[in-house]
Specification:
alpha/beta, Rossmann fold, Arc Repressor Mutant, subunit A, 2 domains, four-stranded antiparallel sheet, globular, binds calcium ion
Length: about 250
């Protein structure tokens, strides 16, 4: 049974969420402060966190940032205030995986939670089906459970990237995005396509959310993030991933 942690200080909303999510077959815990959420996450394992931005004490942005700093990578959906588009970018920058603006329709929240659970399963399934393919070359166009390039090793199983002996954890969305880039190696992919195909997000999502993720990925991957060689900006389009820039630069 999937476990969901709800971090929400509005009692009636929290009660309603608990009731409806339990009816959907989830096991639900509710806390009403960010501090309590961090404690609960340190004690037990959850599959999804629903995190309100406006909380007494620590706000939702500080909570998600603290979670990621604590290497706590549970997929997290933030509840933002409608009419504050910058909250979405702030949430993604801090490490959120998805968001929903308040007030929301309950079926939409349930669909988003399912989406997060599905994307986790999709990543896992993709890893295992690819890893079992025979005759993989050293330069696969599809990532296996591991993908090695230029002294870096991405492990989609462990959700981490290893660069010169240092390991960096990846969030679910970072891993999914990196997997998508690797699958489309050498080809430009647009921000809009990444939002649709990796996040399954909504047309009103600011495509700058993608840029936040690219900043994060470049920090792990690039020797010099301000002069990227792997995650290239394609002006007016989006990004292009190059696994082995040496080949291309010689060509
Ligand atoms: Ca609140």
């Amino acid at each position: 049974m999937n476990r969901i942690l709800i971090v929400e200080d509005e009692q009636h909303l929290a009660d309603g969420l608990r009731f409806n999510l339990e009816a959907e077959g989830y096991q639900v815990d509710v806390v009403d402060t960010g501090e309590a959420a961090l404690e609960r996450l340190a004690e037990s394992q959850f599959d999804v966190v629903v995190l309100d931005v406006m909380l007494p004490g620590m706000d939702g942005f500080s909570v998600i940032k603290q979670m990621r700093d604590n290497r706590q990578f549970t997929p997290t959906l933030m509840l933002t205030a409608r009419g504050h588009p910058d909250d979405v970018l702030r949430g993604f920058a801090a490490g959120a995986d998805d968001y929903l603006a308040k007030p929301f329709e309950l079926p939409i929240l349930i669909a988003r939670i399912r989406g997060l659970l599905r994307r986790r399963e999709w990543l896992q399934a993709a890893i295992h089906s690819q890893a079992s393919l025979p005759g993989k070359t050293s330069r696969p166009s599809e990532p296996t459970g591991e993908f090695r390039f230029c002294g870096k090793l991405v492990s989609f199983d462990r959700l981490e990237i290893e660069v010169r002996g240092a390991k960096y954890p990846l969030t679910l969305m970072e891993a999914n995005l990196l997997r998508y880039l690797i699958q489309h190696e050498g080809k430009p992919v647009s921000r809009q396509r990444m939002l649709e195909e990796v996040w399954g997000l909504h047309e009103d999502t600011d495509t700058r959310a993608i840029d936040n993720f690219m900043v994060r990925l470049r920090r792990y991957i690039e020797d010099n993030p301000s002069r990227p060689r792997h995650i290239l900006t394609v002006r007016g389009v989006g990004y292009r991933f190059v696994a082995f820039p040496g080949d291309e630069e010689r060509a």
